[in-house]
Amino acid sequence: MYPEYEHMEQLLLFLIFMFGASAGSFYNVCIYRIPKQISIVTPGSACPFCKKKIPFYFNIPVLSYFILNGRCHFCKHPFSPRYPLIEAFTGAILAALYIKFGYSVQTLFWFAFISVLIIISFIDIDYQIIPDIFSLPGIILFASAPLFVPDLHLMDSLLGILLGGGTLYLIAVIYYLIRKTEGMGGGDIKLLAMIGAAIGWKGVLFTIFMGSLTGTIAGIIIMISSKIIDIKLKIPFGPYLSAGAVIYIFFGHSMIKWYFSTVFY
Q1: What is the chain's alpha carbon radius of gyration, rounded to the nearest angstrom?
Q2: In the structure, how many helices (H) and strands (E) does the chain have?
Q3: Can you give the residue ranges of every domain in the chain?
Q4: Is omega for the bond preceding 43 within 30 degrees of 0, making it cis?
């Protein structure tokens, strides 16, 4: 590879990362405002403490947080480090999608899908709700996946919707019959149906497994660290389902192939 080409590729990756980070900055706005039923368009970005408008030169994704030492330029109140982390994570996701799928409509489709998962996950962490404004239109929107994703057929998406929503609904019904209380929120059911629309029925099975595995591990860690041993402890499931779906997009096929080649060798 020529050095000039390598430098151009690195510059392109940086620009892609910054574009993704800029999108992540907007997702921070959505995560904060949508549950509070505040417009995501107006007013512009402002400090949540002193309410002063943040100038554009102090609103550069990721970089501004470190330039300002993580504090508001005006009132000096510290900002949550979660803001730059979401920006950096979103930028890294877009760069990773470009590396894996190249300059293609598939990259844009997966970025749109994962962007919705990011917003949903952090709203679920903060409020333990998954707004229907994302999941219900998402089921219809992401059922268009066969138009953008090779080897994914319309029947895969339709079965993914039925299997995703139906599986969690069945689990919720069984849990209620046994425990006489709700154990699975309706938001999780609709979220998994949306995930199934995008990645198909095979992806749903993978997502349920990975989501349950990571959720269980996280739950144990949370209980141990907080010294609260309670099997009824409410832990949002949306972020773990989302993580399972993202893992499937990047590594699912190779992980499944490795599993079957190892177990049935």
Answers
A1: 20
A2: 9, 0
A3: 1-103, 129-265
A4: yes
Please count the CA atoms within 13 angstroms of the CA of 119 that sit on its side-chain side.
25
Calculate the alpha carbon distances from 92 to 4, 37, 62, 214, 251 in Å. 23, 29, 12, 21, 16
Please say whether the beta carbons of 134 and 120 come within 8 A.
yes
Which pLDDT tens digit goes with each residue over 65-122? Answer: 999 999 998 999 999 999 999 999 999 999 999 999 999 999 999 999 999 999 999 9
> What is the model's pTM?
0.90
Would the CA dihedral through 70, 76, 78, 84 be positive or negative?
Answer: negative
Q: Exposed (0-12), middle (13-18) or buried (19+): which is 165, by Cβ within 10 Å?
A: buried
> Residue 138 and residue 116: Cα distance in Å, rounded?
8
Helix 253-263, helix 186-226: angle, nearest 10: 70
Alpha-carbon distances of 9 from 6, 14, 21, 107, 110, rounded to whole Å:
5, 9, 18, 17, 21
* Cβ atoms within 10 Å of 50's Cβ, excluding its own: 12
Amino acid letter, residue 224: I
Rounded distance between C-alpha atoms, residue 162 and residue 166, angstroms = 5
